[in-house]
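Protocol step 4 of 6: structure prediction from sequence.
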Amino acid sequence: MECECELKSEEIEALKSIFSIILKRGRSPSIEELRLSLKRSDEEIIHTLDELEKKGDFLLRKERTQEIVSIYPLSLKPTEHQITLEDGTRLFAMCAVDALGMPLMFNKSVRIVSRCEECKHELVFEIKNGEITFMSHPNATICSPGIQVYPAAETCCPLVNFFCSKKHANEWIAKNPKLKNNIRQSLVRQRFPKIKECWKRYGKTLGIQ
């Protein structure tokens, strides 16, 4: 999902509250918790969540319930992209780009543990003060679809992955010929400045910087 977005004030406040509760408690907030935090009625909160879900990938709820299972770029279910904050809190990103963007969004130093989608070897990144300070594989690469089809959380994120090298990225693409014309490939260090700019802006929009 592009981090450029148009959000209403009540939507921004809802997202900010949800992120705050997740970061403090490591789980999805209940409607009751959001009512206490936002000082709004259940009906108003549910309407705001409905609107956010309609806008694409801001959040996703379990079918026929109000249980939030993802709030972009966080997944409340384990993924291959694990992020550990300095205080030991573990989070999971929806995709490789989100894993690199979340530290900038939250303005926190983190350790990212993922894997190469081709050889399954562990990849580790450390980000401190908004910069990549360690990469287990200096030529780590990201592949992602050039065209997104919504809901991106379901159609795009599974295809946005890390590779330990361009060689392994090319080998993976060769095994998936249907994706060949809709995959862009870039070195992590080359892609990072744009990711940084985008996610810092999103964090400021939500007031969580």
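Step 5 (inspection) to follow. The CA atoms of residues 105 and 200 lie 5 Å apart.
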